[in-house]
Amino acid sequence: MESLSKRAKVLEKKPMTLAERAYLPAIFQGLSITMQHFFRAATKKQVTIRYPEETRPFSPVFRGLHVLKRDEAGRERCTACGLCAVACPAEAITMVAGERKKGEEGLYREEKYAVSYEINMLRCIFCGLCEEACPKAAVYLQADKMAPPRFERDEFIYGKDRLVEPVTPDNRSKRGIQLTPEQADKLRSQLA
Amino acid sequence: MTLPALGWQGLVVLATFGISLLIATYCTYAERVIAAFLQDRVGPDRAGPFGLLQPLADAVKLFTKEEFFPAGANRALFVFGPCLAMITALMSSAVIPFGGFLQFGDTQIHLQGIEINVGMLYVFGIVSLGVYGIMIGGWASNNKFSLLGAIRAASQNISYELAMGLALIAVLMMSGTLSLREITLQQTHVGGGWHLSDIFTWNVFKQPLGFVIFIVCAFAETNRTPFDLPECETELIGGYHTEYSSMKMGLYLFAEYVNVFVATAVMSVLYFGGFNYPFQYEFLDFLTNKTSLSADWAHNIFVLMGVVAMFAKIFTGIFFFMWVRWTLPRFRYDQLMRLGWTILIPLAIFNILLTGGLITFGVIQ
Asked: At what angle do helices B119-140 and B75-91 cross, to 10 degrees?
């Protein structure tokens, strides 16, 4: 029969030789393999990550928990344009837009801002399309923080209280990655 | 035997008992560490330095677990099963010679629980009783998986005991005695000079085929992989100890390790020269003539080195058992029976004929 693909191979079923039937050579082969692993584990580092003390490093492209960014002056960048909500394939983002009042220029960057901004972490698929859609570079998925498990469903709806990044430079992040103390100091001197 | 001597022997029996249990305890730890290392992992290392207190933690866990009796189980036999398994496992270590005798003035302390001239027969008798512990436990559980596991254990042990006994007959033909001490003492070479014959007097070099048969059967007798059909998690859940919990379960698992200890001890006595070690008589000569030790102490140090050698052999054996366990997959049941009845038993009979022929023509003695 003509074979359908080039991958097909004719298998020969040869009768086993005496050495193969005796089974002992195969056993010793297996034993030598496991012994090599024994010495590898005893001398080199094992693959185990001892969890509470060590943690597995995150991938640099990991997409974790969202953060709403502030600009250099500490003002919220989000202008509640709604593009992230439109881009979201899981329809996890809802927001209410409001107009900036006089005297709030230090709080919000644009004249329009998000009065409420909620992401349902149970719906979110962490695809990062909101991050791509945002014209103001306001929403990012942090590369070093996962959405933690919770007991109640409503605790998964993250409002602005949990999404907006803190004002203090030490807690800020850049492109979703927590600032190092040096970067935080630099930012602090810029703000001053 | 005088009364003080009897007391000393009693102490030796108790020490043997304690050592068997201690080794079984640390076998559980060693098994996990060796398994981990063979699989590039770390193993238990939290409880104490290097996790050495892990057996203690396991024991606390087992003792505080719920004691479960399945409905319809025969309660008396259900409790009796693990007890019997443990008792038989511990009893067989009594006749194993761990060393020569210690000399303190007029008192001699033999480092062997009881010296009986049918030691090998005794070990075999006790080991074959061990299957009753499994059988009773499996039957009393009122569970089909347990019963299947117990029946498998019984048929497996009976099948492999035959081949094991036949492999042993070849050794006994050469040694002409059933006493384990006598067999040990025959595997040594008295005389001066530098020679490797201290090792080549071991039975393993005179009986290589018999040794292979014996070790395969020892794996089957102790229900270790690749012959752990009686507990066979993938088919029988847990085999004969499916319904067991708490320390009764612990006793079954413990009995297995005590059996491994006894099997390796018997193996080192029969095939690896027991408490003999290379250059031992040169060492004794050195101690008596070149050092200022008294004759008694020179002898005692020589004997204690023998005990160390014996335990080194036992630990190597135990390591080999674990190494094999984490390398080989389990046999299928029909493969197990075919191996036992159609390969090992004929091979063992052939080995007897071969040995008989070689003895008749004076090649070996």
From this structure: 160
Q: Give the tens place of pLDDT for each residue, A5-17.
A: 778 777 888 887 8
Query: Which residue in A has a C-alpha nearest to residue B212's C-alpha?
Result: A24
The region of weakest confidence among A78-82, A172-176, B66-70, B89-93 is A172-176
* Least confident interval from B19-33, B77-91, B222-236: B222-236
The residue in chain A having the minimum alpha-carbon distance to the alpha carbon of residue B321 is A31
Q: Given this model, what pLDDT does residue B193 score?
A: 46
Whether residue B154 lies inside any domain: the answer is yes
C-beta separation of A116 from A160 below 8 A? yes
Residues with Cβ < 8 Å from A48, sequence gap 6 or more?
A: B41, B42
Where helices occur in chain B by DSSP H, the ranges are 3-38, 54-64, 75-91, 119-140, 144-175, 180-186, 197-200, 203-206, 208-221, 233-236, 246-271, 280-290, 295-325, 333-338, 345-360
Binding-site annotation: residue ranges of A: 78, 81, 84, 88, 124, 127, 130, 134
Query: Is residue B365 in a domain?
Result: no
The distance of A30 to chain B (nearest Cα, Å) reads 6
Please give the structure tokens belonging to residue B273: 């020269």
pTM: 0.78
What average pLDDT score do residues B201-205 get? 78
Ramachandran region, residue B96 (left: φ > 0; alpha: ψ -120 to 50; beta: rest) = beta
A-B contacts (CB, under 8 Å): 42
State both tokens at A157: 């709806």
Compute the distance between CA of residue B359 and CA of residue A80 in angstroms, rounded to an integer: 99
CB atoms within 10 A of CB A25: 12
Q: By residue range, what is the domain housing residue B177?
A: 3-360
Q: How many domains does the structure of chain B reveal?
A: 1
Note whether A34 contacts B327, CB cutoff 8 Å: yes
Are B328 and A27 an interchain contact pair (Cβ–Cβ within 8 Å)?
Answer: yes
Q: How confident is the model at residue B192 (pLDDT cuts 50, 70, 90)?
A: very low
Q: Give per-residue pLDDT as tens, A18-51.
A: 777 778 888 888 889 888 888 887 777 778 888 8
- CA quadruple B161, B163, B165, B168: dihedral sign: negative
CA distance B76 to B136: 10
3-state secondary structure (DSSP) of residue A116: strand
